[in-house]
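pinging the channel bc i need a second pair of eyes. not urgent but kinda urgent?? the chain im working w is below, pasted from the shared doc
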Amino acid sequence: MLPLRQYPLFASLCIMLFSATFGSASADSCVLRSVWEPFEPYQFENAYKDISGLDIDLLKAVATEAGCTLKLRQLPWKRALQLIKEGHIDVASGASQTAEREQFARFSVPYRRETMLLYTLAKRSQTMNIKSLQALSESVYSIGVTLGYTYGNEFDEMRKQGAFVGRLSEMTSDKQNLRRLSLGRVDLVLVEQFVGHQIVQNESLGDTLKPLPLLIPTGSIHFIFSKKSVSQERVQAFDEALKRIINNGTYNAILKHYLRP
């Protein structure tokens, strides 16, 4: 794994939580429908066939602390967002907060931050002079992205303005994108830094693919809740539970387990 110091802990912001009583959120039975998709080291099926990962373990720990249990099912992220909108899924982890999603979802306080990298073929990495998203928008390179993902306000706004028309190749997973990149079917792939590192390692692509030096921060990551099926009081109870697992050391233990040096 990459060194923990490269992953900015978000505990200081998480401490600034909403004030809410825990009793009202846990007085009734709390069973929450949730989702996961392959997104190692955040979400994955381990060698024992258990659904695990940094985001999943944090969600499980917070849910347990808040008096809730989870029912997990595997779904692509775009489909998961639609089911959250419809109220058929209650909660998911690893979500960026956007204006579009705020129309149908509630968000916990942030629990980590996210940074994207641009991967390309190793043999081309020295000649690609992409030092900013503006330079990327002005280039002619094709870019692999994943359906339903947001890549930060700057990239998403450029996309809305048509900066990448005809150049984005959308697939259902980062693994698909990186495999297509290794075959030369796209020029670049946008992927979260730790996820990209893990896929390249798992697929033995370290000699084939390299990240460019450009880091693209995309902001804070939250638990996302359906407005149709989850009350604001329940979200506040999760925020309080998150504060408690930060204070009792569970939060840092989970981060260190998945992002250890």
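so The two ends are 6 Å apart (CA to CA). and Residues 232-247 form the longest helix (16 residues). — does that match what u expected or am i reading it wrong
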